[in-house]
């Protein structure tokens, strides 16, 4: 009876395994079976002896590995992460008003690419949703400190606070912004090549015979908007078309400022094609389509339209507009690859990904005078 009771008691310093479940073997048991120190076991099983250039003898290594196999030793993932000072977690933080988990959200395809590449890289994801009030949760000193729970973090959104991102960068925390950014200095980013894509759209319109083209955009200095305008103006210049101040119409409220009468006035001045930028709201494209419809104009018979990006989800069933497609899943995947490289000590780089031209059905030759 005494022997039976003793056998049922757990060994000192180790919790008893639940009934019917075998306790996880420890490194100390591997060391005891192999006849080596626990430190040697740790070095062999982690491979750190090879990394330091002082490998343990082949005989000792074989003893440790044989003992580990015979005991069924499996490394504790939590302990391994703590030892490496990493969690194998990538953070994703959005500065948009609603975190992009709805398939209709323009940022959702980014997350598809992020999830697929994170799995391929062996990382889990942590979604930081504290900015769901429109980014207010990301303002103020230390507002982004919670992302340090992960090994590194991806940031999404047209308007990200440079000061807060700068603090993370200065501290050496791996950060990648999805979207080109000029600041803070040292920030890694992955963005779509809006300059080249916008230039290609204007070149296509010029090839159809248009000689006066107007860009409609929101009054916003986000890099995505400025890049589209730059590409638009470059396209006009390359095609020998007027590229002065009158070629761009900026509005803080396109739904109010872009009217049917204004569109008719532009047509009277010789404008035959309009180009709108894509944004989170789609305000410029919505206002342009509404104004053209209210003016009773046929598209593309009487006026041509183009969109620098993709239409809002609620307008996706309309005829495909001439323009370009943003490779959102590819951008998400590239951002994860860059972040993994940053975590491994790689440089902070900026990477541009090409967009695909979309012929669409909203542009044609200009109508005869």
The secondary-structure class comes to alpha/beta
Q: What distance lies between the first and last C-alpha atoms, to the nearest angstrom?
A: 109 Å
Largest sheet strand order: 2-1-3-4-5-11
**What does the main sheet amount to?**
6 strands, parallel
Number of contiguous helices: 14
Task: Write out key terms for the chains shown.
six-stranded parallel sheet, disordered N terminus, elongated, alpha/beta, 369 residues, six-stranded mixed sheet
Task: Explain this structure.
The chain has 369 residues and is an alpha/beta fold. It has helices at residues 2-8, 27-34, 38-46, 48-51, 58-71, 77-83, 108-121, 162-170, 194-207, 223-238, 254-257, 260-268, 283-294, 328-343, and strands at residues 89-94, 124-128, 152-156, 175-178, 188-192, 213-218, 248-251, 273-277, 304-308, 322-325, 350-353, 356-358. Strands 2-1-3-4-5-11 form a six-stranded parallel sheet, with helices on both faces. A six-stranded mixed sheet has the order 7-6-8-9-10-12, with helices on both faces. Helix 10 (223-238) links the parallel strand 6 and strand 7. The radius of gyration is 29 Å and the shape is elongated.
């Amino acid at each position: 009876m005494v022997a039976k009771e003793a056998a049922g008691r757990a060994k000192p310093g180790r919790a008893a395994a639940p009934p019917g479940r075998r306790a996880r073997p420890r490194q100390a048991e591997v060391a005891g079976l192999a006849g080596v120190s626990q430190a040697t076991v740790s070095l062999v099983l982690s491979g750190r002896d090879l990394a330091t250039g002082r490998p343990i003898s082949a005989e000792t290594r074989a003893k440790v590995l044989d003992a580990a196999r015979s005991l069924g030793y499996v490394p504790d993932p939590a302990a391994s992460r703590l030892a490496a000072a990493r969690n194998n977690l990538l953070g994703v933080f959005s500065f948009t008003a609603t975190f992009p988990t709805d398939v209709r959200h323009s940022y959702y395809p980014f997350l598809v690419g992020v999830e697929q590449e994170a799995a391929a890289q062996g990382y889990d994801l942590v979604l930081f949703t504290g900015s769901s009030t429109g980014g207010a949760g990301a303002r103020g000193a230390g507002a982004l400190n919670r992302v340090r729970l992960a090994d590194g973090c991806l940031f999404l959104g047209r308007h990200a606070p440079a000061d807060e991102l700068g603090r993370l960068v200065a501290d050496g925390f791996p950060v990648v912004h999805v979207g080109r950014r000029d600041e803070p200095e040292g920030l890694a980013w992955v963005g779509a090549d809006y300059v080249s894509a916008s230039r290609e759209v204007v070149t296509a319109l010029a090839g159809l015979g248009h000689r006066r083209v107007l860009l409609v955009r929101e009054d916003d200095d986000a890099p995505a908007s400025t890049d589209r305008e730059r590409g638009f103006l470059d396209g006009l210049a390359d095609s020998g078309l007027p590229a002065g101040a009158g070629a761009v119409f900026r509005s803080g409220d396109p739904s109010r400022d872009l009217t049917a009468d204004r569109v008719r006035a532009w047509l009277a001045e010789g404008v035959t094609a309009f180009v709108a930028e894509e944004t989170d709201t789609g305000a410029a494209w919505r206002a342009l389509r509404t104004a053209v419809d209210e003016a009773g104009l046929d598209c593309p018979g009487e006026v041509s339209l183009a969109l620098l990006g993709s239409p809002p989800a609620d307008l996706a069933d309309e005829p495909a507009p001439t323009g370009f497609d943003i490779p959102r899943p590819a951008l998400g995947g590239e951002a994860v690859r860059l972040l993994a490289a940053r975590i491994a000590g790689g440089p902070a780089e900026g990477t541009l990904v090409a967009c695909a031209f979309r012929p669409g059905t909203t542009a044609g030759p200009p109508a005869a005078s």
